[in-house]
Fold this protein.
Amino acid sequence: MNKNKVRSHALKSYIAVLITVLFLTFLFIYPRYFLKKMTGELIRTSKETIDLVQNEEWEKAVSNAQSMVKRFEESRDPLKLFINHEDIDELEEAVKSCLQLAKAEDSGQFLVELVFIISQSSYLESIETLTLFNLF
């Protein structure tokens, strides 16, 4: 009977270690994947929108700005788990102001905001880490 207890305890320990390894693997892979996907879409859309603004295609530029706002709003809360909240708030402000600037057809400031989005998105990709500070 004692051998069964030892085997049962060993199996439970093995399962606990396996779950921990899987969780840590997820924790270090998924945030990076999620961030790269979101920032990649923002960068790509921003670059497309820059071309549209330079060609004065305002309807398409507004549509792109709306899609950036929608994509960012879908990603905002999960991003706050592994990126500093202040960095996310800055990017959110820039994305939302792009929509307003597109509707106002203010090409000068709109281009500045788009370049900031590209820059900030690239920066976020480079600093992505999981810290306790980001969790709280």
Q: What stands out?
A: DSSP finds five helices and no strands in the chain. Residues 27 and 130 are 8 Å apart (CA to CA). The helical segments are 2-54, 58-79, 85-104, 107-127, 132-135. The first helix runs from residue 2 to 54.
